Automatic annotation (TrEMBL):
This is DUF6534 domain-containing protein. The keyword Protein biosynthesis does not apply. PANTHER family: CHROMOSOME 1, WHOLE GENOME SHOTGUN SEQUENCE, DUF6534 DOMAIN-CONTAINING PROTEIN. Pfam families: DUF6534 (PF20152). Residues 179-234 form the DUF6534 domain. Coiled coil: none annotated. The chain crosses the membrane at residues 12-34, 63-83, 95-121, 133-159, 171-195, 216-235. The lineage of its organism: Eukaryota, Fungi, Dikarya, Basidiomycota, Agaricomycotina. It comes from Coniophora puteana (strain RWD-64-598).
């Protein structure tokens, strides 16, 4: 029993810890984005590439607020996913049989975060590359990911036992694979589009190189995490 608890809830608990840390990073980023007086002191490398709330259209500022609220809900749901089996139902066999209630809204809020972000980045790729092909593929995989996430949340609400997960494993696999492909396309296309913007002028190319480094650091991390996510999920289906 103890081994099963460790195998089932150990990775989930570690994931919640990491998510909570990244949520703190999100709060700091939002503070920097909206805080005019502290932006240059805290993150001069970001302000140098022009990421400021005052220079963005109003709808983008509202979008950032939406993401902040959604990330807050996501963190609450993640904590709830762990609280139910490890505190509320600790010592109860139901904790090893039934999926925590918060898994359903957690899956849905996750795609309500990732889908708008990926579509926004597809729009940025479209604006930079002046092409519809790659943004079209990004939107296709993003839409597939969104539908897979919704299907996963709905399926869990009806089949809420761990032993029943194999009955709808196609939905989360489609969700995670599509999301990973979209993230990889976004990172690669942004880097390529930025590279094409080089003019040979040292000052301009230096700025482009900074943006490329920032894109690689954030985009590739996201894509790598998505690939690891789907790989671990596929590998873990045999352990349920």
């Amino acid at each position: 029993m103890a081994h099963n608890v460790e195998l089932l809830f150990g990775p989930m608990l570690i994931g919640v810890f990491i998510n909570s840390i990244l949520y703190g990073v999100t709060i700091v980023q939002a503070f920097i984005y909206f805080g005019n007086s502290t932006r240059h002191v805290l993150l001069p490398c970001i302000t140098d590439v022009g990421i400021t709330s005052s220079s963005d259209p109003r709808w983008i500022r509202y979008f950032v607020v939406y993401l902040l609220v959604a990330e807050s809900l996501n963190t609450i749901f993640d904590i709830g996913v762990m609280y139910e089996p490890l505190v509320h139902l600790w010592g109860d066999e139901r904790a090893m049989i039934y999926v925590p209630v918060m898994v359903v809204p957690d899956a849905i809020i996750t795609v309500l975060i990732s889908t708008p972000v990926q579509l926004f980045l597809a729009w940025r790729v479209r604006a930079m590359s002046e092409s519809l092909v790659i943004p079209g593929f990004i939107c296709l995989f993003t839409t597939t990911s969104f539908l897979g996430g919704l299907a996963t949340g709905i399926a869990v609400s009806f089949l809420n036992e761990y032993s029943q997960f194999h009955q709808f494993e196609g939905a989360p696999i489609g969700w995670l694979v599509s999301s990973a492909v979209a993230d990889a396309l976004i990172a690669a296309s942004l880097v390529w589009s930025l590279y094409q913007k080089k003019t040979g002028v040292p000052s301009t190319d230096d700025l482009v190189n900074r943006i490329i480094r920032l894109t690689v650091q954030t985009g590739m991390v996201t894509a790598t995490a998505a690939i690891l996510d789907v790989s671990l999920f596929i590998a873990s289906t045999t352990t349920l």
